[in-house]
Amino acid sequence: MKVNAIAAFLVMLMVVMYPLVDGIQTDSLRDMARFIPDNALMYLEQRQGSKVLKDFTKSPLGKKFEDIDFVKTGQEIGLQKPVLSAIEDLLSFYEAVKDSKLFLEVFGKRFAVAILPPIEMKQYPAVTDYIEDNTVVIAKPRHRAGKLALLSENYGRYLQKYSVSSMQYGNHHIKRIKTGEKNFSMVIIEGSFVISKNEKQLRRCIDTFDAEIPALTQDADYIKIRKRFKDSDRFFYLPVNEVRKFITETVIDLVFPGKALLLKELETTIGFANFGYGSWNRKNSIVDKVLVQYNSDEVNSVVRSHIEAAPKRCSLLSLTSENPMAFYWSNTIKIKHFLQYLEKMKEDEPQLEKIWSTVESISGKNLQEITSLFGEEVSLVLEPGPKGTFFTFPLGVIFLKVEDVPELNKILEKIIDEYDIQVSQKLYGSVRYTYWTPSPQDGLQPLYGFWNDLVFFGNSTSLLQKIIDKKNKKFSLLDNASIKAIDPGFKEKNNSVTYFNNVELINVLQKGLGLAGMALAIEDTDAAAKARVMLNEIINPLLDGIKMYDKSCTRSYFTPDMVIIDSITNKTIVPQNKRIN
Fold it and tell me: Do 294 and 283 form a contact (C-beta atoms < 8 A)?
């Protein structure tokens, strides 16, 4: 839809339709899903949409986005005309709505979008056609009656190209808006617009509101998930079971490339029932929550092994440097449960099969016996590599709980002896570790060692020594004030905790992408040139913008029927008069 069409359609809603019900007192906090049938395939609700759009355009990421010439870059890398046209349409839509008073009036207070299953099964030329034909939009305008005259004066010129007709449907009046490009049907109920391109879907929503069809708000699973997102600025609901069944039934008789892979991937979701996501936008941070509802009797064995792990308090928060680039802990990484994947890898990779056979021969133990030596807890600490070089590999140390330290130590020593690896040992404090002797002392230095009931592997003695020093000083990750400020509950019982310094991680990613581009140039100069354009003109600028999300902390834990993930991300404060370049 072009700019004028968008403006005219919004004028239709605000100037022509809304005065009919202006002044009706309604409960603006009621769930918009009361209009949506309970078999919806997707539901999204957004509050304060105008503020979200305004904040985005003023943010470092929004400014970077607006500085990018997507069409020019697309032409340089050889995108086809249909793709370029789609990009132009999306950018035109963005430009049309970002500063549009009409858009902010209609969608600025609260709106929802739902995708419904089709009323009549038919083949659509493209997924986008299906979405367009089966989407319903609900909007609660911010409108005040005093603005009608102003809107009419400024935008009335668009109305001459459009027509409106009306028809009775029960106690409601459906308005049919006809344009040169698009036709829509809409109804106003309790002060909200309900809109769809497909009038049959609109009627279903009216029937739902009139209690002739069960509403999504009556679905037990929806209710259970929705109540955990009280007053969220954004809410998204996906009934995974229903979506999986719908996609399977839709494609089962079709023939297309990748069908087998699609059906195989859908099978991996069996046992997962529903997905919910919500976010709360604070002044200096964003709070996110994810819920994944599951049936423990139906999920696959690997997933079941994870969800059976009881949440516990992280015992390894004290094994960290003062300001890591990343920290991760989990008590669900059971190496023995990955045995089936290791066996499959052995079958697919002859070289890996040879290595494992050698290890089994040296140790006198089979793969299952070796993996059973490890416990269930693991933690990882990462720091940026040394500064001043084009690319430095991140420094890291990983810690794993061990069930039998002496036995695992014997196996590692046998492997070192068998391959005649030159190693040295060093005692730092009370911790003894073994490192590869030929490695540079000020660079990457492969090492391993044991610390009480933990085995650790790393690539930096300097990072290991930092961790040991902080442990001896009783330092914990939450003693870092910037991390504690965004702690979602690291000291509670969890199944995993994660901390990311997003700026440092993005810096590493950008350098890695640059290195990959250089490697690609050796094999394909044309592809490398296009990749370089993509990196320089789109990817790196967007990544620079994303750096506004400075640091993030995430926790996850299992309940008998849900995975719950809580996250807090802080935002870098940038003065409004300062533009990020």
Answer: no
Rounded CA-CA distance 430/309 in Å is 32
What does the buried/exposed string (b/e) look like for 482-497 if buried means 16 or more CB atoms within 10 Å of the residue's CB? ebeebbbebeeebbbb
Q: What is the pLDDT of residue 49?
A: 85
Instruction: Residue 135: name the closest of 188, 74, 184 by CA.
Output: 184
| CA distances to 289, 324, 487, 569 from 554, in Å | 9, 15, 8, 9
What is the predicted pLDDT for the residue at 150? 41
Q: What is the DSSP string of 452-504?
A: TTEEEEES-HHHHHHHHHHHHTT--GGGSHHHHTT-SSTTS-BSEEEEEEHHH
Q: How confident is the model at residue 128 (pLDDT cuts 50, 70, 90)?
A: confident
Per-residue pLDDT, 389 = 67
The lowest-confidence range among 189-198, 286-295, 485-494 is 189-198
Distance from C-alpha of 233 to C-alpha of 224, rounded to nearest angstrom: 18
pLDDT of residue 442: 62
What does the pLDDT read at residue 25?
Answer: 43
Q: How far apart are CA 545 and CA 503, in angstroms?
A: 10
Burial 181-211 (b: 16+ CB within 10 A, else e): eeebbbbbbbbbbbbbbbbebbbbbbebbee
H-run or E-run covering 223: helix 220-226
8 Å CB contact between 87 and 65: no
**How many C-alpha atoms does 235 have within 13 Å on its Cβ side?**
21
Whether residue 21 has pLDDT greater than 80: no
Q: How far is CA 537 from CA 25, 60, 511, in A?
A: 50, 16, 15
The pLDDT value recorded for residue 179 is 73
> How far is Cα 541 from Cα 539, in angstroms, rounded to an integer?
6
Map residue 354 onto helix, strand or coil.
helix
* pLDDT higher at 317 or 144: 317
Q: What is the DSSP letter of 217?
A: G
Which of 470, 473, 423 lies closest to 449, judged by CA? 423
Query: Of 468, 449, 342, which Cα lies nearest the Cα of 405?
Result: 449
